[in-house]
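re the bet — no i am not wrong, look at it urself. input seq straight from the record:
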Amino acid sequence: MLTTAILTDFEMGRIGEKIRKYSALGFDRYHTPGHKGEKCGGDITELGLCGEIFPDGVIELAEADTAKLYGVKKIRYLTGGSSMGIKAALGCFAGKKVVYAAGVHRAFTEACELWGICALPASGEQSSGIVYTCNCGELPEPITADIAQNALDNHPDAAALFITSPDYLGRTADIAVAELCQNRGVALIVDSAHGAHFAFAPDLNEFRFDNVADMCNMSAHKTLGAYTQSALLALNNEEYFAKAERNLELLGTTSPNYVMFAALEDGVCEAAANRADYERLREFAAKMRGVADCVKNSDYTRLCVRKRGLTGGELFAKFVEKRIMPETAIGDLAVFILTPHDGRDKLERLYAAAKNIM
């Protein structure tokens, strides 16, 4: 039985609280940004000499809190999306060989160009070129431990393995790949852009890479309640902490948007406080699978629906006609992302539309 409530109360994060306290003081603002708070009262800059008024270390404290919630050694907040995290992580292997599994985001090839990395396909079937997750064409299956082992056997001088898990369709790579890389002394970098919620959805914990990979990026804006461009870079190998930090400095801005940081922290706190709500989504996903042909995947919050005789684009259009906007169309699939922000009435409209279309 679906509940009416969407989210339970949660304790707001440190960053937002500090911003609200400053805004409540009613200062006449003679600092940036130029709108002086009229467009967004929480949009402030570093205050005081060297930021001792704001942020005054609150970002680092928030990141440490988030790292504890995820069970990882270190977390960095990003306002340049997961693309920034991918490039910073790969920058730790500048000039070296990196094996990659098919299905990478374009940020991977951009990083290889930026850092002079020699990219080596994990499978011989990839020799014709890289398949992008963001091209929305046919996506390859996630990498298995056997393919990873063969690839590393063929490239014993590779410094790292780069994989995507989960992929756009909610399918996950073999978790045994993490142990394989650890045993061989090869760094594992995981693009988990679509898996920021795995740590908080009980049934998805077994598919997580953020707590076992050397470095793992997650797009908090994709599946958590954070603003677009907000992301997390999880680090578990201290060998790369300093280099990854320097790469983020080289790639990022000296003027991050603290409203985005606050929403990112709050989005994580919100997900942690609403773990039980994922059961509601799991039950709805099972209900949808009763009326729609859905791809078998690991992530039940990612519904990938097909209908015989229709392309993904045509199926997408049929849902749009019913005022339902899917995430995308890939091959013959229309893709839907479920989060705790999808309430009962909204989900029932999706179910009714699917039942009618199918």
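see?? The first strand starts at residue 74 and ends at 78. told u. also The radius of gyration is 21 Å. so pay up
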